[in-house]
Records
---
Amino acid sequence: MTSFVGPELTNPRAERVKAVRALSGRSMRQRTGRYLVEGPQAVREVVRFASVHELYVTAAAADRYSDVISDAHERGLPVHLASDEVVAAMSPDAQGLVAVANVSSATLDDVLASRPTLVAILASVRDPGNAGAVIRAADAAGADAVVLTLESVDVHNPKTIRATAGSLFHLPVVTGIALDTVTDALRAAGLAVLAADGSGAHDLDDLLDVAGPAGAGDRSAAPDLAAPTAWVFGNEAWGLPAHELELADAVVRVPIRGQAESLNLATAAAVCLYASARAQR
Amino acid sequence: MTSFVGPELTNPRAERVKAVRALSGRSMRQRTGRYLVEGPQAVREVVRFASVHELYVTAAAADRYSDVISDAHERGLPVHLASDEVVAAMSPDAQGLVAVANVSSATLDDVLASRPTLVAILASVRDPGNAGAVIRAADAAGADAVVLTLESVDVHNPKTIRATAGSLFHLPVVTGIALDTVTDALRAAGLAVLAADGSGAHDLDDLLDVAGPAGAGDRSAAPDLAAPTAWVFGNEAWGLPAHELELADAVVRVPIRGQAESLNLATAAAVCLYASARAQR
């Protein structure tokens, strides 16, 4: 049975509505430790997988997405009924349903404790859509975690959340950490650190050819894709500068067969992560 | 030596400026058979690889991108000097340099005549960024052509051109054709038609395991990724409906190892096209 907290909210100019809407901006997220999740697909995933503060739903959406509302009830979350105007004022992309969620980023120690075998590191990735697409690809490839370095986009940006298609809530995403801190820690935990860059000495297809037990343990040889691996992906415009490439054990290039200069960030990351996942089967 | 056609253009409200700017809209592209190419990276590629009508450049950009201007001179293209205001009025993304290019789409017969071994087909792909990213990935993977079906986005949309990062000019891109016409023609030319879809009976990794001569020629068995292949990729929101899946010889799924429901269109296409390219080496 659907039940709501308090009476229906009908004033789109209420302070409460403005406060929810303001979570689409970084400064309000930082002040409150909360963020906005818009639309049925993302709200469904955040309710199932992450820490949620409260939901706002229109009568029509409560009916249409009753599975989401009953998941929320099961988890004891407050669900507020609101008019179409109120929900639209909270987010133009709500389709009748928004959640206010609690920022609860994983830590690097959490990730290390899980004994990861595949990690994606985004170094200074600035575009919300690119970052989101890589998080989604990492989830699909079965990565254990994603790390975004200090200079990267805020993953709780609504555009990033949308691009992850729910994957932001599926695997640990660590943020706000310096690249050398991450690479040192993951290397100490036994992962090979591979930078993806067009300048790489190693061709990804060649590494796939020799991946497996025969190549393992020999640090002087080509990296073994079947071994635990952390991939480093650089900024969408300038890639990885020399001082970042030096933090990797090896630099690997995705082979370019046509006239293209490079792949875009998310497609390159997907090809690399799927190559590792294939080698690690 | 840099030389320009006529005097410097200085009036951003001139009819000529408006006419160039209007090419960012579909209707003017259809009326004139021309399209707008913005910014040094894309203009460099269109001058080298495609049919260009004329260029507009600021004095500063002519200096900075003198390689592009001398390429244009070599090809006998008219280069107009224009003020910063004029070029900015033609396109806010020009960075001092725009080209007016001639639409000269390849035909399916051109593609067939080239005896292609790897083709990407986009069925009803609507998002300009997604379509552009797939064209870029197809180029990088060494595909021979890309085909967009009737209901797809206009590839001469400025957002698509930007997302291709020049790849639109590197390989034949056929547009405005019904999906069954393309699949029939490519199958008749000896290509296997594989649809990429999460419902697929075949796992891409399993197909890579068995790709090669041993599997070839046996139509009842799993498709051979080493054989000439046309991949069909569906709309970013609803994928491939049943009547489109039926046009394929086999439906192949990219393995999903985490909690993600799917990959986004461009990353899925990149993983599939790179798998074919690897198997065809």
---
Amino acid sequence: MKVRIHISLKPGVLDPQGRAVHHALESLGFGGVEDVRVGRLIELDVADETSDEALSQMCEKLLANTVIENYRIEKVAA
Amino acid sequence: MKVRIHISLKPGVLDPQGRAVHHALESLGFGGVEDVRVGRLIELDVADETSDEALSQMCEKLLANTVIENYRIEKVAA
């Protein structure tokens, strides 16, 4: 089973990487960009019997820093 | 308009970060994980009139390294 974990910074948390990308886009002449936030995308290939609970635990314990980040678990049809 | 850019390594490209995460998950006792790949998730807030062409150009020129990475553009309903 393929699972995608989307990890993004919580609203209000400063994102220097996103600001750098925003700046770079403007320098390249791309107008109309209002905001940029950079997060992570973790693609897991796990056994089909893996429970939702186990996936949440993986995020809480290792993949995401829940103090400053939100995560979203998306199961991808195989 | 909110746009999410999903950037992942092309198949076959070594992913040391993914291997480290895989290893760490196993050390924490999570079984059944077969593969882990780590990519990036870039959330853009752009003007509504931004064309698909401009979004592709942003990816090609700055956001993704198309030699080793694939990107996927997803428009999110506002």
